[in-house]
Amino acid sequence: MSTLPSPSIQGCGIGLRSQHFATIEAQKPAVPWFEILSDNYLIEGTVQREFAQQIRPDYPITFHGVGLSIGSVEPLNKEYLKRLLKLKKELEPAWVSDHLCWTSAHGYNTHDLIPLPYTEHVADHIAERILQVQDALGERLVIENVSSYLQFKDTDMSEWDFINLVIEKSDCNLLLDVNNIYVSAINHQFNAEDYLLAMPADKVKEIHLAGYEDKDTHLLDTHSRPVTKPVWDLFAKAVQHIGDVPVLIEWDNDIPEFSRLMQEADTAKKIQQEQLSKLVNT
Ligand SMILES: [Fe+2]
Question: What is the pTM of this model?
């Protein structure tokens, strides 16, 4: 029987990064939960894995990966899944998430989140693979919308229709990255609110927030900056649409001190509570 506390996730969490291990160990900050980049924890005996084991009794965690490559045409990587399952058994995350994209082909891992053509045929393919992963996990996979910089000629539906179709066919859950919606809306000139309001609120398990860089010709999802004003505004609308779900601050490049991440999580919490109180009062 498990000796770990319930992995119940609430409030505004922070992505766990090795740069902050010492601070977390010394200060035991009042963070409601951490999300770990599960691909970095798959090898047993590493500093990362031992740190996650060490803090797990004090903090609930979620898994967030890029290695499933759910959109690839090659068979799912069984060795990867096996390691993920072992890690899952050890750390008991609240859920396991990955991205609605592909990252590898012909055995080569790009380490990039490459978007998909949005067609029913592709939705069938993805849903079939999500079902296989869910069978292995014994629970629903949580799938995240990615930001993108190109579109495929074969695409014959909106990204939001495609996401709904994949969820309908696989019964998976959704990790809604509000920053990714905004970045793609600017890059592809669609209305971010149309996308947001089309999301199935009852399937959203978690919201991501992050900062992008403005490259003049396009926005680049770098996770290297504070969350911007238009993304906070879209987040407020997301809370109105979805209600009370856990929110996570992602910061992966030019990583600041841990206290700065806590400030960002506090801002998210404040906006979330303002919007939730409006929902209660209407
Ligand atoms: Fe994200």
Answer: 0.95
